[in-house]
Amino acid sequence: MTRTDETAPPPGRKSKTHRVGQRPPFDCVALVLQGGGALGAYQGGVYQGLAEAGLHPDWVAGISIGAINAALIAGNPPEARVARLREFWELITTNPRGGWLDAFGSSLGRGDLARGAFSQIAAANALMNGAPGFFSPRQPNPWFHPTGTPEATSYYDTTPLKATLERLVDFDRINAPGQMQFSVGAVNVRTGNFAYFNSRTHHIRAEHIMASGALPPGFPAVEIDGEPYWDGGLVSNTPLEWVTEREGHRDMLIFQVDLWNARGEDPTTVANVLSREKEIRFSSRTRAATNAVRRRRRLGSALATLLERLPPDLKAGPEMGVLEDAADLSVYNIIQLIHRARTFEHASKDYEFSRATMEEHWAAGYHDAIRTLRHPEVLQRPATLDGVFTFDLAVDGRE
Length: 399
Description:
By secondary structure, the protein is an alpha/beta fold.
C-alpha cells in the first residue's frame, strides 16, 4: 500500500471523499480506538475521513489515547468533532520551547537519516519537557518525593490533561440519554482486573478518560470511586471483543483503528528490535480479539440453526434459556485501519509529539479512510457463512 504526501484538508474544507448516500444496513456503527500515545493523531485523520463521508458512529469505544479521541468525538456535536480533535492535537504538539523544532522537522525530507534524527530529538524533547495541555515532568523527580504520595509514583503530572478535557469535551452531552454510546477501558491497580466505563451505566467524568490512559510509571494512577486505575492497554489494547460481547444479536459495522501494526520486518538493529517488540506487544490482542469474535459468531450461528430443528419436547427443557441467549444470527463487518510506521519511526514513536509528525500521522489516517471507503464491500452486509467480514486496506485493498 502506498500513501500520498498530501496533507489532509483542514476542518471545514472537504476533499473528494466518497460520501455515503444512505446509512449502511447495520443496526450499529461502532468506532473502536486503540491506544498508542502520539500515534493517536492517525485516529483523528481517520475520523475526519469518516465524518466527511457522512459516517457518524452510534458507539465509540477507546483505550488510552483512543479514549481521549473517543471523548472528543462523543463529547461534541457532529459539526464540531473534527475541529475539537484538531484543537487537541495542535495543542499537545505545540513546542513550548519555540517553533524552531517544528520548522526544522517540516523542512526535512521523509524517510532519510535526518528525518529519523529529528524524530529522536523530538521524542527526547517530550521526555524532558512534556506536552502542553497533556503532561508535564515532575519537579523534583519522583524518587525524591515521600513514599506513599501520588508524586512518588510517576514521572509526569497529568493535571494539565484534566483541564484540557474539561474545556474541549462536553461531559453533559456524553452522559445525556439518547446520545452516542461511549466506553473506555482501564485496569484496577489493586485487583489487576479490567474494567469498562460506559455512558449507559456510569456517569462519565474526565477522570474516566484519564484512568484509561494512565500508563505507569510515566503517568500516575487515577482514582475513581475510591479505586486506583491504570491504562487499559496493560491488559488489552483494543475494545473490540468487549464491544461485540455487549452488543449481541445486533448487526454491526465496526471501524477498528489500530496504532500498532502486527505485521513487520525482521529487525536488523537493536533500535529495530525495540520498535518491533513494542508493536507486537501492543498489537497482539487485535488479531486474537478478531479471531475470537469470528469464532463466537460461527458457534452462535450454528447453534441458532440447530435450535430451529429441535423437536418441541426438547425445546421445553431448562437449558433452552441459556442456549437461546447464545444463539446469534447477527453479522459483523470489522474494518481495520492500521497505522503503519515509516522507516524513520522507532520505539519512541508513541511519545514523539512534534507537529510535523502529528500532521503526517493525521494525513495517513485520513487517506487510509478515504481509500478504504472506495471499496463498496466495506459497507455491505457480509456474505460469508460465518457472518463476519474483515477488511484491511494493506491486505485486501491493494491499489
